[in-house]
Amino acid sequence: MRFRHQRSTVLDLALALQRELIGRTGSWESNFLPRPVTPETDLFLDGLRSWARTVGSGLPAFLAAAGRPEDLTALVDDDRLRSGTELVTTALTAAAPTLAEALPQFEDLRKQAAVAINDFLAPERYLAPLCAALGTAETERTLDLHLVPLAPAPPATGFLIDAGKVTGVYVDCRRFRGSTLADAVLTMLGWAQLKAGAIPENHLSTELVRRLPGSSPYQRRLRVTLTKILVEMTAGHLVRAVDSAHRPCVDVLGTKWRYARLYAVAEQHWPRYLDGDVDRAEALSLIAAELAAHSPRWFVDSVDPSSLAADFYLLEWLTAAGHRTARAQLFRWLPHLCAELAGHLDNVIGNELGHYERARTQNYPRELADFITEINQGDSRVTWQRLRRETGHGRVLRLAADAFAGPGVEFGGEAWAPVAAMVRRYVLHELPDRVFVDQCFTLEHNNGSLFDKYHDTTTMREVLDAQAVTDLDTLLTHASAEVRELWQTRRLESAEGHPVWLGSRTAAPAEVRTDPTGWSVTGLHGSAPGTVGSGDRSDRNAFAPLSDPLRDSPVRVRQTPGRRPFSFSLRTYRSLAAVLHTGLGNIHLKLRPDEAPYTADNFVGLATGRRTWTDPLTGATGEGGFYDGTVFHRRVPGFVIQGGDRLGTGQGSAGYRIPDEIHSGQGFDRSFQLAMANLGRDSTGSQFFITLAPAPHLSGQYTTFGEVADDRSKDVVGAIASSPTAVRLDRVTILAT
User: Which residues lie below 8 Å from residue 273, measured CB to CB, with a gap of 6+?
Assistant: First the structure.
């Protein structure tokens, strides 16, 4: 499976538009298309859904063959794709003028990426070992490789499909760089190789079905996920042969952490095959033998960190009460638990630092500004690992804490600053292992548990509340079977009749501190069902391979609860109105604080200066009304006018974000609705817009909190929309009861 570099302007535009609409990983990523988007642009999503019914998760190959968006319809030879293509053409035509201005800035990056790929992936270096690992024949087949600057993420990669066959792949060369880009490309080539042509006897899919038979949802998911892990491991191994410092994507981009138990089994045996220590058949047999020891559900379901926390706190209690077996278990497990938690947080801190791509760094110290700029070059998780290695763990964690506490405040960073500071203290040996573990469980970020990115944290709050009030019965319901059994052997209390916490009557063994460089290879992944630190509270026999009662049930979807807290006190109103005093006349607004109380109060606070805001021009705390002297920077006749940005570019804010208040009864089925703009979920700040016509495609995406009150005001809105130049908003008057 070879590749040849290709370039398509229309594919670049289509992927950039898909990223703008549904593929940015958060409001912190740069956007190039103003939001809210026009109705014509929004048709793109309907076109994608129409295509998906025929081509699945890929994109039609003719998308890359068109010279211009308007050429697409002439290239369609499958009637099933025609209606979707017409919608995509309309959307691309509407968005192309804006996106075409953004794409050229990435040309040098694309050229550098092509050179790097050629250096890493010479066919004679990867082709034979890749085909051998996948059990496919070497062919002369060549795929088109499109290195694109903007692709929807995750995964920022994808296939081009023609008549059900993969003809090309695309990879985001802005997100993936250097050896990580080579890893991503090789992973995509591996998947394409598995999908291509006839399936030989030793094809990886055939081998896994033979060794891990079954058709239940969990059995199928086990094989698919294991295939994903083996393909990614193989790609990472081949790239590391060229760059020994490369950290494989299977680790740094999350597959290892998301499927910790399954990855642990594969990690024991597949690298031995890749290194030539055992043959492929033996490695697959060893993997299958370990997987057969437990139900597929054990390897597919997420780790439950609330079970880890319950085990830890109960073992602490028993150790403090003098239980020798519990004490031995705790100190045997503790180094592995620390390594697991530290490695997890290290990965997530790197991910969270990618939230500051939009940060304006000119108002911060040079070292911090350079750090923020550097960490957002490519995928922040990858860059973080490199900077941690090159700069030193203590120093780079200090910069991370400063980044969270500085520009990161706008995106919830104030909750991550103490996390980075805590990890730094642990790295510098200022924090004992047991205190570190306790803080890992009890510290939270802006939406809840620190472990919600990869683990199921549904019951974490329940366990922490139980620990806080010494509710041992609740802790026991979440603990592993082994800890529950230990508890039954000795239920001790202190002389006062209350449990003893976080103390010990007996000397503890010396702590075994793990080196930060070992976080990625040490952990608790190998725990068996029911054992201490297994990350599950089920009984020991719940995951027996043949008697698992849930073996044939649908695969359980990981839940990620979010609290979406508001960070300021709420002032309520019986009635609320506002007047926008503009250069073309006054706009009277009737606000609806009963439907969106926090949003309405936020608008009032900014308009009056009662709410503290940050001037994006200076980085200093602002004085007076935030909206005074701003302009309506966006004016689209028949659609919207938009203001509330002191930068006047559509990229500014007041230095903070609040969650959305979107309800089923709200919508844009009427004209002249007042709503807050955003850059994605829960990223409302200061910008607002007023619609000039019904815009049902915006419903469910933006918080509406008012409407234009009278016809004269509607005429002013129309005049602003038609103005060829920006219209000034002099001040806002609030009329409140």
Answer: 133, 279, 280, 282, 283
162 φ, ψ to 5°?
-135, 115
C-alpha dihedral sign at 142, 143, 144, 148: negative
What letters, b where the CB count within 10 A reaches 16 and e where it falls short, cover 446-466? bbbbbbbbbbbbbbbebbbeb
Q: pLDDT tens digit string along 205-240?
A: 999 999 999 999 999 999 999 999 999 999 999 999
| C-beta of residue 56 within 8 angstroms of C-beta of residue 161 | yes
- Cα 426 to Cα 516: distance, rounded to the nearest angstrom: 10
Tell me, rounded to whole angstroms, the distance of Cα 111 from its chain centroid: 28
Burial classification of residue 209, based on how many CB atoms lie within 10 Å of its CB (0-12 exposed, 13-18 middle, 19 or more buried):
middle
Q: Are strands 157-162 and 59-60 parallel, antiparallel or unpaired?
A: parallel
What the block records as the tokens of 369 is: 């500004």
* Structure token pair of residue 297: 């559900």
What are all long-range contacts of 265-272, with beta carbons under 8 Å and residues at least 24 apart? 265/290, 265/291, 265/299, 266/226, 266/229, 266/230, 266/233, 267/233, 267/525, 270/230, 270/233, 270/234, 271/233, 271/237
Do residues 55 and 103 make contact, with C-beta atoms less than 8 angstroms apart?
no
333 vs 345: CA distance, rounded Å: 18
pTM over cut 0.70: yes
Report pLDDT digits (tens) over 264-308: 999 999 999 999 999 999 999 999 999 999 999 999 999 999 999
Joined together, the tokens standing for residue 261 give: 């138990």
